[in-house]
Specification:
Structural class: alpha+beta
Largest sheet: 10 strands, mixed
Number of helices: 10
Helix content: 10-25%
Radius of gyration: 28 Å
């Protein structure tokens, strides 16, 4: 259980995981580049949440999570569900503050509905990642729910059907390396803790429980830190006295990428910031960004200077302020390659592990100074795990692992200090000999018997041709499924009763892979559901192809066109789609 907090101040740094590299790398002081995460935020938007989250603090927590993401490069999507998908936002790459504002505006527009089916939300979140995730990013799903289902009796949906779909979605998430972090909302005491715990456990995520929505920002901070291998470091607690109070924020070295200072309060809080030289830094300014919402303010420092920064906080008298730090470095931990040969009991393996940044060894003894490292050894035969302390030579961690028994092992190095930890990828050690033969013995005359080479050659050639054809077919299927889009779609919606049109919405298409439908572009608005059978796929030469599988009419240049087999669109083409179920018309323009 996370302690209740009237005001939480969390310093978080958006982590970037670098590809582990072998030894023999050039030496540098620090690096600028990092990788990113792809996150889908999934929220139960049923009426039962009116009791679990009366003030929609879950929305505020999701918005804070978005603000904690890197200034550029991360992707985030949103899925709001009941017993169907209420609204959805496909993965959007953060390229500017405007992208974050677009996501937060979307969250503010979420409405609640009747019934609940958790499988619907999780299944869609997995699909969103499969359709738009970047293979080089770290994927994750965050689920906010009470864990209970409430089916519409007229639908015929059963718990067994829901459980089957949920387990299938979780199997896919696990296969794709997507942990699901669950947050159980228990304000009304009806939380299904076991269900949410099982979801997290099955996918390698973590499960959290809270009786009050006020805990959600702190929980999301812990999820953020856990997923990205960060540490939350409690600094101090203060009680506001109505005047500015000083908080020291130490930036330990030049490898810090972004520092996010989140100030949570139901009452106004003022803040001032001073750099290590004592100079006041304007909020916002060139290297300081600020985001504000109903319940929080977030200050983001980009590549802050090393040293003690001073944060002056002025809160309402007697409010408690809890301060936490989470440090992120643009570094990873790598280990020298281990031979793939089969080892024997008693063999010794030299272990050498290094900090790397942007593919280079980090030459900064101060980073190693206070760090401890261990070799984590898991016996794959018994399941037991042990640790071997490694030496710190100032520029690496070293030690020797002696094979204790004729078992198979998995080893990795973990290095940490109070505000930082990293792990190398696990490496398997084989100590068992190759499998014995089949046990059959050739008869003396067998060596004189010759096979029929012509028949074997023919069969082999046919088999190879079939394999090549199958491989080509699968390759083409994969290419089609992962082909990207270019350009953007300009969308307007005209009310046929009043003649009024909405402001143009510019929807970038780069986040989609393979195909998408018009309903997704319309943010899955329930009243526009009939557009889900109007499908777009990539075309050649920066064009897209529209395929109409719905009863709706597609009009181009004022004339109805048959798009049932595909209609190619080039930049500047405009379409009109009158809707059948509502008195509205969709106006589209494709631009490259």
């Amino acid at each position: 259980m996370v302690p209740k907090k009237k005001l939480t101040l969390a310093l978080l740094l958006a982590l970037s995981l670098l590809v582990p590299l072998a030894s023999g790398l050039p030496v540098v002081e620090a690096a600028q580049q990092s990788s990113h995460i792809d996150a889908v935020l999934v929220v139960d938007d049923s009426n039962s949440m009116n009791k679990s989250d009366r003030n929609k603090i879950s929305n505020e927590a999701m918005k804070m999570f978005i603000d904690m993401l890197s200034a550029k490069g991360d992707k985030v999507g949103v899925v709001a569900y009941t017993d169907r998908i209420q609204r959805e936002k496909a993965l959007l790459e953060i390229k500017s503050p405007g992208d974050k504002e677009d996501l937060k505006h979307f969250i503010d527009g979420l409405d609640r509905g009747a019934y609940t089916d958790i499988a619907v939300g999780v299944k869609e979140a997995v699909k969103v990642l499969q359709d738009g995730a970047d293979p080089s990013h770290e994927p994750m799903i965050v689920l906010l729910a009470d864990g209970n289902n409430d089916f519409n009796k007229t639908s015929g949906r059963t718990q067994e059907q829901s459980d089957k779909e949920l387990n299938q979605a979780l199997d896919e998430a696990k296969k794709d390396g997507v942990p699901v972090y669950t947050i159980g909302l228990n304000a009304d005491g009806k939380l299904n803790k076991a269900s949410l715990g099982a979801i997290a456990q099955k996918t390698g995520g973590k499960s959290f429980v809270t009786d009050t929505a006020d805990d959600l920002p702190q929980i999301l901070s812990e999820i953020f830190a856990s997923h990205l291998k960060l540490k939350i470091v409690p600094i101090q607690s203060i009680t506001a006295n109505g005047s500015y109070q000083d908080v020291t924020v130490n930036v330990p070295n030049a490898n810090v990428l972004e520092a996010n200072i989140s100030i949570m309060s139901s009452k106004p809080v003022e803040a001032k910031l001073y750099d290590p030289s004592g100079k006041e830094v304007a909020i916002p300014s060139s290297n300081v960004m600020v985001s504000k919402s109903r319940t929080y303010s977030l200050i983001k420092l980009l590549k802050p200077d090393q040293g003690d920064w001073k944060l002056k906080v002025k809160g309402v008298a007697k409010d408690k302020i809890d301060i936490n730090l989470v440090f992120n470095y643009d570094m990873e931990l790598t280990m020298d390659p281990v031979s793939s040969k089969t080892y024997s009991k008693g063999d010794k393996i030299d272990i050498n592990s290094y900090l790397v940044s942007a593919g280079n060894k980090v030459q900064n003894n101060s980073l190693y100074k206070d760090m401890n490292a261990v070799l984590v050894v898991k016996d794959l035969d018994t399941g037991q795990t042990s640790e071997l302390k490694l030496g710190n030579t100032g520029d690496r961690f070293s030690g020797t692992f002696e094979i204790p028994d004729k078992h198979n092992y998995e080893i990795k190095v973990r290095a940490e200090e109070k505000s930082f930890y990293r792990e190398t990828p696990a490496v398997k050690i084989n100590t068992k000999s190759a499998a014995a033969g089949s046990g059959t013995t050739a008869s003396p005359g067998d060596k004189d018997k010759k096979p029929f080479p012509t028949l074997y050659v023919i069969l082999g050639a046919v088999g190879l041709a079939v394999l090549l054809a199958a491989a080509y077919f699968l390759l083409r299927m994969w290419q089609r499924a992962n082909q990207g889009f270019v350009g953007q779609m300009v969308i307007e919606i005209r009310d046929e009763n009043t003649g009024e049109k909405t402001y143009p919405q510019y929807k970038k298409l780069a986040a989609f892979k393979g195909k998408f439908n018009l309903h997704q572009l319309l943010q899955l608005a329930p009243e526009l559901r009939e557009t889900e059978k109007i499908i777009f796929t990539p075309g050649k030469n920066d064009r897209i192809v529209l395929k109409n599988l719905s009863p709706n009419t597609i009009e181009k240049s004022g004339r109805a066109v048959d798009a049932s087999k595909g209609l190619e669109l080039k930049s500047g083409d405009r379409l009109t789609i009158p809707l059948i179920g509502v008195d509205q018309t969709i106006l589209l323009e494709y631009l490259v």
